[in-house]
Amino acid sequence: MLRYFLISLCAVLALASCGAGAEPRYIELMPTQAVEMIGKDTGLTVLDVRTAEEFAAGHLPGAINIDYHADDFARQLATLPENRPVLVYCRSGNRSGKTVPLLRDLGFADIRHMNGGWLAWQDAGLAAE
Prior knowledge:
The protein is α/β, with parallel strands linked by helices. It has a single domain (25-123), classed as Rhodanese-like domain (Oxidized Rhodanese, domain 1, 3-Layer(aba) Sandwich). The protein is 46% helix and 14% strand. The protein has helices at 2-20, 31-40, 52-56, 73-78, 94-105, 117-123; strands at 26-29, 45-48, 64-65, 86-89, 111-114. The termini are far apart. It comes from Aquisalinus flavus. This is Sulfurtransferase.
């Protein structure tokens, strides 16, 4: 009986671990880590999901803007190259945090999320456009 239980437990754990790595992951970055990535990764897509007005007031170097509240937000995300790494941010991390699963669902495998968003970037005194 114990042997049957142990074999069953091993089988369940083996199956559970197979699915654990199947879903693309994302990496949380601090603003100082994000600025390093922006400086050395020329294939990086820097995605700002704030409103156009927020974006116009200042944004990360090289960022593109797709408004999280736009009716066609998911369609616009789908136009981005999914084979390139993407760094997503917003004002505080709320909208960009909700964007991460959408990017995963669209097939993006290399997703970076900036902790604290634009506010943390400004607090760190980092350069902006």
